[in-house]
Amino acid sequence: MTGGTQKALTINKNLAQAAEEQGWALALGSTRSALESRETAITFQMRKYAPSIPIIANLGAVQLNYGYGVEECRRILELTEADALVLHLNSLQEVIQNEGDTNFKGLLQKIEKLCNALDSPIGIKEVGFGINGQLARHLKESGISFIDVAGAGGTSWTQVEKYRSQDLLKTLAADAFQDWGIPTAECITDCRSNGYKETLIASGGIKTGVEAAKSIALGADMVGYGRSILEAAVSSKEQLVTVFKRMELELKISMFGVGAKTIEELKSAPIIPKS
Q1: Which residue of 79, 176, 233, 236 has the fewest C-beta atoms within 10 A of its own C-beta?
Q2: Per-residue pLDDT reduced to its tens digit, 184-241
Q3: 6-267: CATH homologous superfamily?
Q4: 3-state secondary structure string, 1-43?
Q5: Could you tell me which residues are beta bridge partners of residue 223?
Q6: How remote is the C-alpha of 144 from its chain's centroid?
Q7: pTM of the full predicted structure?
């Protein structure tokens, strides 16, 4: 989830090449800047490094209230050669930002319009604060194809913006939201218990293949990693591949431990709460 700078280009190349080698999907960072500058756009154009894997482009959903629409989203998909577009929800992050865009009014209707107009799948993700079952149901009704719950437990974007902010009051207020959000596990179970049956991605604090196995057993279809792979992504493709292989092995060992031969069997593994 990065892009826009020379260092981000290196990180994205490492991610793309490692993902291609291991057959992982690649989720890009917010691509709004890619429409504004050719130099910036290059940092998001990873298809030449990853010709066969799914690539997911990214845009802040709130930008639909700030001049972005169907054509801009279509251009993002074409520019990145992505297979899908995810719109991220980041209301608390925008509030703490000095330059934050905070008009989230009427976005469900605009998301529905976008889903109806584009042929590519459109998804929704949070940025570390989680998506509950009620919202998942509304998003499904709007036509989205997948949800990444991006629950609490990983990077807190209120804390990231705290260190960027030039507003003393916002900097002080950000501390009150350090633990804000719905934990990833609760997001998964709440979405499923509220009848959301489409593709569900678990992210937000996922660090190991064991945690991936737990997420899938709880109801996720896929798992996303961010901060836990960043150090390796900064270093080299080779280090990143090693991390990917370790996580894959941890997942396979977990499946062996519960007697699940396939991911589908893992989804049916019994959940026994700790006493």
Answers
A1: 176
A2: 999 999 999 999 999 999 999 999 999 999 999 999 999 999 999 999 999 999 999 9
A3: Aldolase class I (3.20.20.70)
A4: CCCCCHHHHHHHHHHHHHHHHHCCCEEEEECHHHHCCHHHHHC
A5: 202
A6: 15
A7: 0.94
